[in-house]
Every structure is written in structure tokens, then in C-alpha cells.
Fold:
Amino acid sequence: MIITEAPSFIKTYVEDLNNKLEKHQPGARLTLTQRTWLSFCLTGILMVNAVCWAKLERASLGNYKLSALSWMFRKSKISWEYLLIASVRLILKSYGITGGILVLDESDRSRSKNTKRIHKAHKQKHKASGGYINGQTVVLLLLVTDSITVPVGFKFYMPDPAVSAWNKEEEKLKKREFPRVSGRLNRNLTQSIRQKLNWDYSCSKILKDIILKLQLNVYWPMPYMVQTNL
Structure:
């Protein structure tokens, strides 16, 4: 599969997205170079079914270099947060969606063993083999409607290293048949609970922020029934 030019429907989508972005956040409009890069990336993702700069370079027969694609993603001043919000609002308007349900879902993604530079990568249980791998856990905020399900937000999750270390030590004590130390257990349980509360509070703040930016009318409690006002 060779990419020579982005198809017309992707070009139209990027232009509509750019107009929506300008309307939602004045000054965040994409430049011509940014629009060309985004159109190429969307086309490449559809063709190779992956987000991989090396594969996109090969699909373009070297016309788009890996280093240039990566630089645009890392260094180009694109308002990614507003771009996501504008994209979701554009899709909702295009499909005539006026309501739905907000739900949380998580997904584990395996990564390379050398994960020093990958954000919040940690050891995960590999269900297929029963062993352990390095990977990321992505928690997605999904808007579920009668016609489509679309992600409207996300956050990376990583276990508290202190709690993980305590659990590892606890397993060693169990194997040696040592009794549990109640003081240490209570203290670490408190840490675990505090971690969960901090995580829930953080998710709640992000959720409310997304709801306000998408102009969603929310009906509590969970699952969140919403109506859009586009």
C-alpha cells in the first residue's frame, strides 16, 4: 500500500475540524503544514492499521521521513486538548447525536521490554501466557450512543510503587508462613485507599472538565446520562 495523497474525505474532515477548532478556541487554528501532516497521518493509520512512524515512512516510499513525522508530533505547537474536543463535537454534529451515556473503560497495551522513555509503563499480568510483560494501562472516557461509541477523554494509570512493593513483600512472607504485621498492613492499606481516592478525584476533575468543554448536560450518578448542546 502506497500513500501518494490523502483522500478527499480526509482532507474535508481536516478542514472542517480546523474550522471547528478556530471557532471553539480562537488562535488554535492549524497551519497548512500541520493540516498536511495530520491528513497524511490519518491516511496512513487507516492504511497500515497502526500508529508507527516507520510504517508510515515506508507507505509513503520515503516522501515523509520518520524523523520529520516524529518531530511534528513532538514539537509542533498543536493544541492537542482542544483538537480532541473539537473533533468529538464535529463527529457528534455530523451524526446528529444529541445524547448518550458516559462510561469508563480501561485497556492494557503491551510495550517493549525497554520502556524507560514510555510514559507510565509498568509490569502487567499477561493473560495469554500467564507471565508478566511491560505495558501501559489507558483509562478511556467513552460516550456511548445509539449509533456510535466515541472516546472523549483518556488518562494513563500506573500502580503506586509503594503499594506494589508492599504486596511483593507480603507474598514473600506468606510463602515463609510468617504472620501478617497488622501495623504495616493498616498503613499500606491506607496508602492504597488514598491512591484510589486520589485517582477517583483526578478522574472526576477530568470528567467534569471534558463535560464543560463539550457542553454536555449531565444527569448523575454513574453511568452519566448526557445530552449534547452543539
